[in-house]
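Homework help board

Subject: predicted structure for assignment chain

Our instructor gave us this sequence and asked us to write out the predicted structure in token form, then describe one feature. I got the tokens but I'm not sure how to describe them. Can anyone check?
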Amino acid sequence: MSQQEAELKQQRIQISHAEMIERISRAVPEDGLLEAFPGVVLGRFSRPTERVYSVFKPSFCIIAQGSKQVLLGEEAFRYDPGHYLISTVVLPVVSNVIEATEEQPYLGFQLNLDATVVAAVMMESGVETKKSDASVKAMNVSPTNSDLLDAALKLIRLLDTPDEIEFLAPLIIREIIYRLLRGEQGARLSHLLTSEGDTRRISKAVTQLRENLDQPLKIENMARDLGMSVSGFHYHFKSVTAMSPVQFQKQIRLQEARRIMLGEDLDVASASSRVGYEDPSYFSREYKKLFGAPPQRDIAMLRSRLQA
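My token output:
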């Protein structure tokens, strides 16, 4: 690529970012999240945020302005207007906006990735992606290119023509997935959606853990059912999720307990039992380690913030 071509591409990115900033600012005039249409979420925050514990769906995320950090286990992924983040497995994460001001608020875009649509685009486009290692991690950050940015911008523009969303949005989402497959994350995306390989087995294990929160974790049985050795299962699970199976189960259990205590007004004993803890005292200690406060105090603080 010549210097002139590189400069033109950079100018194109700058123009697209400027338009994206203007459109997201208009769509989300106050701090918070907006589901623009199914599977597409826009966000705005005028100051750095506290850490948020959540279960992150398979997603493609870009930032128009500001920056954000996502913690997966002990690994930190930071992204900004020059980089996008992709996640291809449901994962418990801790995230926060780290760069935002009143004058230049954080402005973000998230597209949930539907495995069925990704598989269809892979087959219909004939895109050949590079083979990746079986232990490829389910989350990473890559530089944003002008074509990918433009495709995301097309989706945001549909907010001005809501009558076109039903027909055009699926086409633009397919374009975004196509460009992801053609980019640095293509191998990651395709590898995690194929029907073979150790990473696919780990994806199945993640689903089983999420659907059976209250059940004891039996590593030997799970490894055997997946056709893996115990040591191989441990290795590949941590490679994909950045956590051991025990750490993963603990995080999703505690996050679910927090959600139901806040949303269903359950007491500590009931919530801990619902997610598989037999000893409420042990549950409370583990809860405090993760969230920084005992369950009752933490829930009280969360409710006071919501009511403020």
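Reply (TA_rk): Your tokens look well-formed. For the description, you could write something like this. The mean pLDDT is 90. That's the kind of observation they're looking for.
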